[in-house]
């Protein structure tokens, strides 16, 4: 049903054009014009004429409909996110996770609540949040570029058979794409876990995890201090450019204050034997002189399966060059290396040449 309110004193026919547009956009079936909030007119099937009625007719089967169209649900949730942001603009918490959690449907002109189907809500919450973040930083939540999140999932795909971990999950971009791919391909992923320092970000990630088809646990914790479980697959985009006041010892016995190498070391320590890490890292991990001994250690103790260089612009709001690195906790082997240019999004699309070439090198021909 779609209802259009006409101004006092206007002819109800002025609402016909708006009803026709709503039908074309939303696929609605019953259409009404309301004058002064009390006088109801129902449109015919072609939305050409109006007939005065006592009020809206209840839909068949008790009106227990659900929103199933993902694009429509994303549009509704995005609109509500911006309304929430406007209400909180200038405050310390522009987006309240509790309000985001409530965005699970919409209320019609007549006051009826129409829920979003759970399977649809799982996709719509993720897309609405990412779109909101890319249009502006009002939310204050970290989300990765959707092309990178999707590529990380594809590169991890063959190892999404047991458990999944992101120790620096932000709002969960890498987790959600990996879970979706695992579900689509039937890989048998049983559980996913995410950790992040920011409690507000964790709350938003939990609101998405609530409707995930795979159990997802999101914890507010410091990944460098917490006792994290070892996992068969680790995906993550840790913070760039950190420097610690005290040196930390790496797996090769060297010590460093450099956050990029320290976080890489922490992530690789979390792999189970035979597991895989797919990481979005600062480019300097590949060339800094003070990381040379650690790179040699990785090359002789892990399989550094692929390194895909990304240009500036791959990280929203940051002028930094980065790489996607795939590391298996297995016997060393050759590394697939590619530096992507301005068409990096095309190259990393599911059917992109660079992604397909990397997957062929890492996992062999797909069945």
From TrEMBL:
Residues 146-250 form the Ribosomal RNA large subunit methyltransferase K/L-like methyltransferase domain. The lineage of its organism: Bacteria, Bacillati, Actinomycetota, Actinomycetes, Micromonosporales. Keywords: Methyltransferase, Transferase. It comes from Paractinoplanes ovalisporus. This is N-6 DNA methylase. GO terms for molecular function: methyltransferase activity. Pfam families: UPF0020. The keyword Transferase applies. One of its GO terms (biological process) is methylation. Signal peptide: none annotated. InterPro entries: RlmKL-like_Mtase, SAM-dependent_MTases_sf. It comes from the Bacteria.
């Amino acid at each position: 049903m779609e209802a259009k309110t006409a101004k006092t004193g206007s002819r109800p026919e002025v609402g016909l054009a708006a009803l026709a547009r709503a039908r074309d956009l939303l696929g609605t079936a019953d259409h009404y014009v309301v004058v002064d909030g009390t006088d109801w007119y129902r449109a015919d099937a072609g939305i050409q004429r109006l007939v005065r009625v006592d009020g809206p007719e209840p839909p068949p089967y008790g009106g227990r409909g659900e929103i199933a169209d993902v694009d429509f649900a994303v549009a509704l949730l995005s609109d509500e996110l911006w309304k929430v942001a406007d209400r909180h603009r200038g405050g310390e918490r522009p987006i309240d996770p509790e309000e985001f959690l409530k965005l699970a449907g919409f209320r019609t002109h007549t006051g009826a609540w129409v829920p979003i189907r759970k399977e649809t809500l799982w996709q719509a919450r993720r897309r609405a949040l990412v779109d909101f973040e890319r249009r502006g930083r009002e939310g204050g939540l970290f989300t990765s570029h959707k092309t990178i999140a999707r590529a990380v999932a594809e590169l991890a795909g063959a190892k999404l058979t047991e458990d999944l971990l992101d120790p620096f999950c932000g709002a969960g971009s890498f987790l959600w794409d990996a879970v979706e791919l695992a579900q689509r391909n039937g890989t048998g992923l049983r559980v996913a876990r995410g950790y992040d320092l920011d409690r507000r970000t964790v709350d938003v990630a939990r609101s998405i995890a609530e409707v995930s088809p795979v159990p997802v646990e999101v914890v507010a914790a410091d990944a460098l201090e917490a006792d994290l479980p070892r996992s068969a697959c680790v995906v993550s985009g840790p913070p760039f450019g950190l420097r610690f006041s005290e040196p930390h010892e790496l797996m090769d016995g060297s010590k460093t204050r450099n956050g990029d190498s320290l976080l890489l070391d922490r992530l690789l320590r979390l792999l189970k034997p035979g597991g895989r890490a797919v990481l979005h890292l600062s480019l300097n991990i590949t060339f800094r002189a003070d990381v040379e001994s650690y790179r040699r250690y990785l090359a002789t103790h892990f399989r550094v399966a692929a390194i895909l260089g990304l240009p500036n612009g791959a990280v929203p709001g940051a002028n930094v060059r980065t790489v996607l690195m795939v590391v298996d906790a297995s016997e060393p082997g050759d590394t697939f290396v590619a530096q992507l240019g301005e068409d990096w999004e095309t190259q990393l699309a599911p059917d992109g040449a660079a992604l397909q070439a990397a997957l062929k090198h890492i996992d062999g021909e797909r069945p």
